[in-house]
Amino acid sequence: MTTIAVIGNGRVGGNLAAALTRAGHQVTVADREPGAAAAAARTAEVVVHAAPGAGAPERLAALREELRGKILVDVSNATTDGPDGLPDALLHPGGSVAELIQRALPDTRVVKTLNTMLFPVMTAPASLTTPPTVFLSGEDPQAKKAVHDLLTDLGWHPEWITDLGGIATARATEAAVLFVPHVIRSSGFTPFAISVAR
Questions:
Q1: How many CB atoms are closer than 10 A to CB 1?
Q2: pLDDT tens for residues 48-83?
Q3: What is the separation of C-alpha 179 from the centre of its chain, rounded to a whole number of angstroms?
């Protein structure tokens, strides 16, 4: 059992918190109340950042002491929104929000994952007709192993998990969000994910 804090109680955070609890972990969800994120992070071994990517480096930098030495799982994407509310453009072209978070938190082990799919797939990957792929980006091998284990708890088969390397590889997975609005406009909000066919 891992003690986990989830920052963000929207659809993504709520979905992950419920699934991780079902998997036997001790999960606390931080809402938007002042001090809630700091209190939750202080007592957790792993912190999941499931809030919007826009402004995330600044928000998380305020938790530097609470996050020191811990694993921070970033599942966010940072985009501007188009007129229909769907992602339109990357906020950090040529970089990634994950890299900015790692730079803001040099003593925290940041791992990027689960950001290349609609949120229902995060906790039900086997529900798709084609096996999806989930990616890991991060500098710390032990942190990535711990996140790998959490992914398997969420139903991800080991062969569906691909370690891309260092945190800079999050640039590629964050850019995949640009597929999302076009797929949604074409097919609706049917759950989907990026899949690497081999």
A1: 8
A2: 999 999 999 999 999 999 999 999 999 999 999 989
A3: 17
